[in-house]
Design a protein that fits this description.
With 105 residues, the protein is α+β, with helices and mostly antiparallel strands. Helix 2 packs across helix 4 and helix 3 packs across helix 4. Strand 2 and strand 3 form a beta hairpin. 16% of the residues are buried. 70% of the residues lie in helices and 13% in strands. The N and C termini lie far apart (39 Å). The model has no long low-confidence stretch (mean pLDDT 90). The chain is elongated, with a radius of gyration of 19 Å. The protein has 5 helices and 3 strands; from the N terminus they run ααβααββα. It has a 3-stranded antiparallel beta sheet with strand order 1-3-2.
Amino acid sequence: MSTDTLVPVFAALGDETRWSILAALGEGDASASALAGRLPVTRQAIAKHLAVLQEVGLVESVRVGRELRYRVIGTQLSETARRLDRIGAEWDHRLAAIKRIAEEL
């Protein structure tokens, strides 16, 4: 996952409502109407937030009868977490090098 793909994901996750929607979908697939019943947001606002999450690849829609349900795409979230872990490991490595240099002085 490149920085080009991380930035839109983080921008999408930076919104509190989208984060709440993603957390709710983590508990199970749901329609926009069902999510609106659980969250203090209108169905229209939920639909707009879902479109953003879908655009960055964090959720996908699935038709179940006449209902359109959304679910989290775990691979995208896992890849984002792995990228963050790599960034953290790189910083740990740099900080350890600074510590070694400081202790040698």
